[in-house]
Amino acid sequence: MKQEKRSLDARQVTLVVLGFGIGGGILTLPSLAAKVFGASGWLIVLVLGLFYTGGAWIAGRLAEKFPEETIIEYSPRLLGKYLGLLFNLIFITSFLLVIPIEIRILQELVNISLLPDAPIWFVSGSFLLAIAYGASRQIDQIAQVNELLIEIAIIVGLFVVLLAMQHFEPLHLLPFFSKDLIHPDKVNELVGMAFSFASFPVISMVVPYLRNPRQTTPAVVKGNIFITLVYTIFTLIVLGVFGYQETTKLSWVALELAKSINIEAVILERLDLVLIVSWISALYTTALLAGFVVSASVKRMFKLKKHAYVIWALVPLVYYLSTIFTNYFVWTRWSVYVAALFVVISVFFYPLLYLLSSRKGNGHA
Question: pTM for this structure?
Answer without folding.
Answer: 0.91
